[in-house]
Amino acid sequence: MEKSLENKPLNMRIRLLSSTFSEKENLMADYLLKHPNQIIHGTINQIADELNIADSTVFRFCKRLGYKGYQDMKISLAAETTYNKGNIHELVHENDDEKTILEKIFYFNIKTLEDTLKVIDDEDFIKAVKSILDARRIEFFGFGGSNIIALDGYHKFIRTGLSVNAQIDSHMQLMSASQLKEGDVAILISHTGQSKDILDILDTVKENNVFTIGITGFTQSPLSQAVDIPIYTLSEETDFRSEALASRIAQLSILDALFVNLMMYLNQDGTDSLNRLRKSIKKKRT
Question: Are 145 and 14 contained in the same domain?
Answer without folding.
Answer: no
